[in-house]
Design goal:
- By secondary structure, the chain is an alpha/beta fold.
- The protein contains ten helices and twelve strands.
- The chain folds into three domains: 2-11 and 195-289, 4-hydroxy-3-methylbut-2-enyl diphosphate reductase, catalytic domain (Cobalt-precorrin-4 Transmethylase, domain 1, 3-Layer(aba) Sandwich); 13-96, Rossmann fold (3-Layer(aba) Sandwich), CATH 3.40.50; 98-192, Cobalt-precorrin-4 Transmethylase, domain 1.
- It has helices at residues 13-29, 43-52, 78-86, 97-111, 125-131, 144-147, 168-181, 195-208, 223-234, 269-280, and strands spanning 2-5, 33-36, 54-57, 68-71, 90-93, 115-119, 138-141, 158-162, 213-217, 238-242, 258-263, 286-289.
- The longest helix is centred in the N-terminal third of the chain and has 17 residues, at 13-29.
């Protein structure tokens, strides 16, 4: 079996920062430290940090008053921030800086009097955070069809925001529909779209020209992993989302098939290695990496945490 591995894949800079923040908090303050929501959407990462002494909760009322607490990479609402302050929690905000950038854009647009439209998935933690970070009404849409249902007048001052982990293609289609209906609408520059999402999706496009199957390593609640899987299927390559090698089904493959592997931005490389090992139990492998973009982005730890040497 020929195996081609995507480049780039796996952890992005925002995920690395979030995981490092939890580990550094444990080093500085000792266990337990509390994390609101999964720090990133990957069960292996969450379990590893749990084993080290992190306690994951969904709501702050599960956190003892005054405890060391981290917010996940997806961001939180201002109500959550206020609750943490009222409970005198020692908070370190691991929100991805690119998500924080969306929050800032939203506030800036609102301050200029624009009505806001957010392209995103209802109920996703990042979307909930965005909606709760801007002190102005935001209309949430996800599809091109919903653009035609918007109530705004053609000449109304409008601005749009986008969830960082969506498909670039899907976002582009909705943005095009918005600009066609509302020629005066404004939005963030293309350079402000999450670089990691774009790079991983482009790597899948490149991979799909060379493989007969694609395995996307990631969790089902990881939006960017699900998007990679959907993208491959749209390109005509049967793809499967697997958390690790235990979810591999040998019936998906023939021994001489060419199989691609990529990983969502919250997936550790150890899970990719586990998938490769599972394939090796099905057939002898020839493994190579696809040339791709080398990512050099690094983010500083949240204020108050000291980077390890």
């Amino acid at each position: 079996m020929n195996v081609i591995i995507a480049q780039p894949r796996g952890f992005c800079a925002g995920v690395v920062r979030a995981i490092d923040a939890v580990e550094q908090a444990l080093d500085q303050f000792g266990a337990p430290v509390y994390v609101r929501h999964e720090i990133v959407h990957n069960r292996h990462v969450v379990q590893t940090l749990t084993d080290k002494g992190a306690t994951f909760v969904e709501e702050l009322d599960q956190v003892p008053a005054g405890a060391v607490t981290l917010f996940s990479a997806h961001g939180v609402t201002r109500d959550v921030e206020r609750e943490a302050q009222q409970r005198q929690l020692q908070v370190f905000d691991a929100t991805c800086p690119l998500v924080s950038k969306v929050h800032n854009h939203g506030r800036q647009y609102a301050a200029k009097g624009y009505s806001l439209i957010l392209i995103g998935e209802p109920g996703h933690p990042e979307v909930i955070g965005i909606l709760g970070q801007v002190d102005a009404p935001i209309t949430l849409i996800q599809t091109v069809k919903q653009v035609s249902e918007l109530p705004f007048a053609v000449g109304a001052p409008l601005a749009y925001l986008t969830q960082t982990t969506l498909s670039v293609d899907d976002t582009r289609a909705v943005v095009q529909a918005l600009t066609q209906r509302y020629p005066g609408i404004v939005g963030p520059a293309s350079r402000d779209i999450c670089y990691a999402v774009q790079n991983r999706q482009q790597a899948v496009r490149d991979l799909c020209t060379q493989v007969e199957r694609l395995l996307v390593v990631g969790n089902a609640n990881s939006a960017n992993s699900v998007t990679l899987c959907a993208l491959a299927n749209d390109l005509g390559v049967q793809s499967y989302l697997v958390a690790d090698g235990s979810e591999i089904d040998s019936q998906w493959f023939t021994p001489d098939m060419t199989v691609g592997i990529t990983a969502g931005a919250s997936t550790p490389e150890s899970s990719v290695e586990d998938v490769i090992a599972a394939l090796a139990r099905i057939a002898p492998l020839q493994v190579r990496a696809l040339p791709g973009r080398e990512e050099q982005v690094r983010f500083h730890l949240p204020a108050g945490l000291i980077a390890r040497q």
